[in-house]
Design a protein that fits this description.
Largest sheet: none
Structural class: mainly alpha
Number of helices: 4
Order of helices and strands: HHHH
Helix content: over 70%
Shape: elongated
Number of strands: 0
Oligomer: single chain
Distance between the termini: 42 Å
């Protein structure tokens, strides 16, 4: 049972990382006019949060593939993955 609770906790942490990074990039990375244009085109907070969640999962699993053993390094990789994914998604 501890493996299941650890997996659920990791899932929740990765979702929270993705949401926080997504909101930070959306609100902190754009000016007032950019936020207004993004809302007009539908690329709002929810979209950025979802892309951030996807990026955090990708970063976490890339960290697992690279065998970053301490858990803290995996979460740092999740944060980096969310940032990189959001930056690349914004420029596309």
């Amino acid at each position: 049972m501890p493996i299941l609770t650890t997996a659920i906790a990791t899932f929740i942490i990765l979702v929270l990382i993705g949401i926080i990074v997504g909101l930070f990039v959306n609100r902190g990375g754009r000016g007032w006019l950019g936020r207004k244009v993004a809302q007009a085109t539908g690329a709002g907070d929810v979209t950025y949060a979802l892309v951030g969640i996807a990026g955090s999962f990708m970063g976490f699993h890339i960290g697992v593939i690279l065998e970053l053993l301490p858990t803290l390094l995996l979460y740092i990789a999740a944060i980096a993955g969310a940032f990189v994914t959001l930056i690349l998604w914004r420029r596309a």
